[in-house]
Amino acid sequence: MKIEHIAIWSKDIERLKSFYVQYLNGKAGNKYHNIKKEFQSYFITFESGARLELMQMSSIPDNLNNTEEQFIGIIHIAFSVGSKENVDDLTEMIRNAGYSIASEPRFTGDGYYESCVLDPDGNRIEITL
Hints:
Elements: E1 5-9, H1 13-24, E2 27-28, E3 32-34, E4 39-45, E5 51-57, E6 76-80, H2 84-96, E7 101-107, E8 113-118, E9 124-128
Parallel strand pairs: 1-5, 6-9
Antiparallel strand pairs: 2-4, 3-4, 4-5, 7-8, 8-9
């Protein structure tokens, strides 16, 4: 069994799509648009076969979570980039593009080397070795 995809609601799927394509090497599929429901989505596929579904619909309310505190539920998505240098380089590239860094590259107590960045919507993205 494998996870087929994870879905994320957004107010701006074009901006979110650009982030995952540009910085995390995702490949965007064609945009789906259901005019009647005012629903739009993209599937972003990654080299491993994992996919994200980025979804937008005007009737979805804002999330009450914030980027500082953590709450029950899915809290981050982790992307393995293969080396310590790649973690450092990608973190710097994302920082230089003006995105927030939630935690600097470091070795964690459970042995990971990782940083945590925020995508354009404030979702936590771990960049790991």
